[in-house]
Design goal:
The complex is a heterodimer.
Chain A lengths: L1 H13 L3 H16 L3 H27 L24 H8 L3 H10 L9 H12 L6 H12 L3 H4 L2 E2 L5 E3 L2 E7 L5 E7 L3 H9 L2 H11 L5 H16 L1 H14 L6 E2 L12 E5 L6 H4 L4 H22 L1 E3 L7 E5 L2 E4 L5 E3 L2 H16 L3 H11 L10 H9 L11 E2 L2 H11 L20 H13 L3 E2 L1 H8 L10 H23 L1
Parallel strand pairs in A: 5-9
Antiparallel strand pairs in A: 1-3, 2-3, 3-4, 4-6, 7-10, 8-9, 11-12
Chain B lengths: L11 H12 L15 H6 L4 H12 L3 H10 L6 H17 L2 H17 L1 E3 L6 E3 L3 H22 L5 H17 L11 H11 L7 H11 L6 H17 L2 H7 L9 H19 L4 H19 L1
Classes of the chains: A alpha+beta, B mainly alpha.
């Protein structure tokens, strides 16, 4: 059994294209065996799409580090399969006694950037390097516990060697019984129990945070850390969110969200379509025009999700994108999605409208108070408040082409963490909006790194629900026809009912 | 500058880490005196090791002649952190180094020991660091502390493994010149040794002062200082009652399951900090690979 798994592992490593060949074989078998025509057709189509994806991916695996599906904040350079965790006790030793919690804190470091001491940053990033993957046997055990079948039976093909580290788990490639090429994220066994116990030691956590991030609001950070970890421990929430995004963006000209395979997703497993593309680091070597298009897609994704779906994917992190050229971007990792109620979103919309469209400072201030960003009786003049806040809206206050820069992102980040400004005593970030700081800190940093140029205001006007301007870029035009076809589809559905 | 009796304890983690990294060989000529399948390697890499280290010093200091040797001869007061780092480098080389390296560092220590002799001002007794009785005391305190710390705060050894550890470690005492016949080779023998030696032990002024420094070192980096409080409480909790009473430390609260978890969490954070020092992760991985391959050969 063990040696068989090892042989298979060797085969996969040795011939990275072999999994594509396996898909092909499997696809044939599926075609012969299936008698129900419609299901048959769907499967073949799926199988073919999968095959194309895998075939492209297969060639790439040969030359690239196995990081295609890396998720938020992962820095592990390579998976140390030679040091793989063999048992749940190994997991507890490696990730227990606060280490798993510290690792998550390290991943959060991407948006508490200015708050961390250099020593803390080094500690946290080193910790991520220190976690080896699960052994094939241990990962298989988790799959068996979750699906009731060992992976070789639950899937047509199971690659026992993980291709990437993921959030408190690792990613395996597989082909489902009906021929879909998928990425399966498997959670470390026992990690939930371990981390929950460690989160209980609030005194130590608070001390640690005080040391690692002295300039931060420790209790806010602690609350955020707990919330984030608790969410991530149950992969079902992630699967639900990813499926929501996948459905919403189905057929979108440039945005692709891999679909979840629901019957193969559980508390400790997320199975989704396998995707492929260039990583962020590669994008840096592409032409500026390509980078601008990729940036436009990411920008549209963030704000359309916020204003239309009332949802925000909290991880604008380079590891969560795959780039396909022509602005096509695959969005991965929906481990942290915030859904906004209408009441939560309204003041945000009002703020943008009053500041950027109606140029009405006192209404802007009122909306800030309504949202809870500003204390009602703040004894500061409105123009001072507007002056402070305007930086966050800088890219959308006026029309015209603008280039995002690292300097702008850094200025936004500095302003965000400026606890010495006179406004700081009267300003707050209500819990439900904490996640949005990642727009300021994550998205702008990302676009800055791409030196992306666009008329951001113009794109925003397309998306802002109170403007809904006609398309102003080719991508906008393509998106408009996608929106129109969605409406037609919805109408057709209603008519059928 | 010399008005302060002790130098500040800053850099403890950095210097211990550097000592550790330099002691874990990259390309050893052999598996050394213990080897990757040994219980000694396992217990030395246990999470409880810092507690074991501190407890071991607390125990060792209770022998007036051993304490006098440290107090009168070493640079302990001027550079306590350096002295601790040197000690951990020595222990790590003997444990993980190949036979040639372990023998070399042991011989160096023995050469130093020949010069460490004098008269203890408290008892009026003459002492010599190469006296096998003193070396045995230091050895026994270390072995006993590793067992006590891992039992309470680490991964406790099964009975046979505890005996194996005490047996394996006899070679460490021999390297420093202790005759094989007098070294306890099992847990029971170790217990008898402590019963025999206890009348000689007491807390001298030098011991109280040194340990007072160790338990609350001034100038320690702020983050580490907070964690150190937990390590200190843990080390005191593992002391035998008679040792704690000699120091006059109040009886610690019983170690509940909850308290044990808290201590382990503090140890985990300390370990994460240690792990971030240059080369530590790589050194650990070198050892883990060797232990793994030895384990699979055995299994």
């Amino acid at each position: 059994m063990k040696s068989q798994a090892r042989k298979l592992a060797v085969a996969v490593v040795a011939g990275c294209v072999s999994i594509a060949a396996l898909t092909l074989l499997h696809g044939r078998r599926g075609r012969r065996g299936d008698t129900r025509r419609r299901a048959h057709k769907l499967r073949v189509e799926r199988g073919l799409t999968a095959l194309r994806l895998v075939a492209r991916g297969g060639a790439r695996y040969a030359s690239n580090a196995p990081r295609l599906f890396a998720s938020a904040g992962e820095h592990r350079q390579q998976l140390r399969n030679d040091l793989a965790l063999q048992t749940a006790e190994d997991v507890a030793t490696t990730l227990g006694t606060m280490k798993g919690v510290l690792m998550k804190l390290g991943q959060m470091a991407s948006y508490v950037d200015d708050g961390l001491t250099p020593a803390a940053r080094r500690t946290l990033s080193r910790l991520q390097d220190s976690v080896p993957p699960m052994s094939p046997e241990l990962a298989a055990r988790v799959v068996t516990e979750e699906l009731g079948l060992p992976p070789e039976q639950a899937f047509a093909t199971w690659d026992p060697v993980p291709i990437a580290a993921a959030s408190i788990g690792q990613v395996h490639r597989a082909i489902t019984l009906d021929g879909r090429a998928v990425a399966v994220k498997v959670q470390y066994p026992g990690i939930a129990e371990t981390i929950e116990a460690d989160l209980g030691n609030v005194a130590l956590l608070r001390r640690m945070l005080k040391i690692t991030a002295p300039s931060q609001d420790v209790d806010g950070l602690l609350a955020e850390l707990r919330e984030r970890i608790t969410e991530e421990l149950d992969y079902r929430a992630e699967a639900r969110n990813q499926q929501l995004f996948a459905r919403y963006y189905q057929g979108h000209p440039t945005i692709y969200v891999p679909e979840i395979v629901e019957e193969l997703s559980t508390r400790r497993l997320v199975t989704s379509d396998l995707a492929d593309g260039a990583r962020f680091a590669e994008l840096a070597s592409w032409s500026q025009a390509e980078r601008d298009l990729a940036a436009e897609t990411i920008y549209r994704f963030v704000f359309r999700s916020l204003y239309e779906m009332h949802a925000f994917n909290g991880d604008p992190h380079p590891g969560n994108y795959l780039f396909g050229g022509g602005g096509r971007v695959t969005f991965l990792d929906f481990g942290l999605v915030k859904h906004f109620t209408d009441d939560e979103l309204r003041p945000l919309v009002e703020m943008v409208k009053h500041l950027c469209v109606e140029n009405d400072p006192s209404s802007f201030r009122r909306a800030m108070v309504e949202a809870g960003f500003l204390m009602p009786d703040t004894p500061l003049p409105t123009d001072m408040i507007v002056e402070h806040m305007a930086l966050f809206y800088d890219t959308v206050r006026e029309r015209g082409s603008r280039t995002m820069t690292g300097e702008y992102a850094a200025a936004v980040s500095r302003r965000f963490f400026d606890f010495r400004s006179p406004l700081a005593a009267y300003a707050a970030i209500p819990r439900s909006y904490v996640i949005l700081q990642r727009i300021n800190l994550g998205l702008f940093a990302l676009l800055g790194e791409l030196s992306a140029t666009a008329d951001w205001r113009c794109i925003a006007e397309e998306i802002w629900p109170f403007v809904q301007a006609p398309p102003c870029t080719p991508m906008g035009a393509a998106e408009a026809s996608w929106l129109a076809s969605r409406r037609d589809l919805a109408q057709a559905h209603r008519a059928v009912r | 500058m010399t008005a302060e009796p002790y130098a500040a304890a800053s850099g403890l983690v950095e210097r211990s880490a550097a000592a550790y990294v330099s002691s874990v060989p990259g390309q050893p000529q052999d598996d050394g005196f213990f080897g990757p399948a040994s219980v000694t390697w396992r217990i030395t890499s246990d999470l409880s090791a810092p507690v074991a280290g501190l407890r071991s010093l607390l125990m060792q200091a209770l022998h007036p002649l051993a304490m006098a040797g440290v107090d009168q001869h070493s640079d302990w007061r001027l550079d306590p952190v350096g002295r601790l780092a040197a000690t951990s480098a020595y222990e790590a080389t003997v444990t993980y180094g190949d036979r040639a390296s372990a023998t070399r560092v042991a011989q160096r220590v023995r050469a130093i020991h020949t010069r460490v002799r004098g008269v203890d001002t408290v008892t009026g007794q003459p002492y010599a660091a190469e006296d096998p009785a003193l070396l045995l005391w230091v050895h026994a305190a270390l072995v006993d502390s590793a067992l006590a710390a891992s039992t309470l705060f680490g991964t406790p050894l099964a009975g046979a493994d505890a005996d194996a550890y005490v047996g394996e470690m006899t070679i460490a005492a021999e390297l420093l010149g202790v005759p094989h016949e007098i070294i306890p080779a099992s847990v029971a023998e170790l217990g008898r040794y402590f019963a025999d030696v206890r009348p000689e032990l007491r807390c001298t002024a030098a011991a109280a002062e040194s340990m007072g420094y160790l338990l609350d070192p001034p100038g320690m980096d702020s983050g580490i200082a907070e964690l150190w409080q937990d390590i200190r409480d843990a080390a005191i909790a593992t002391l035998p009652d008679w040792a704690r009473e000699m120091y006059g430390y109040p009886a610690p609260a019983p170690v509940t399951a909850e308290r044990r978890t808290e201590i382990r969490q503090a140890l985990g954070v300390l370990d994460a900090v240690f792990l971030a020092e240059p080369g530590v992760l790589e050194a650990r991985q070198r050892l883990a690979l060797r232990m793994r391959s030895a384990g699979s050969k055995a299994g």
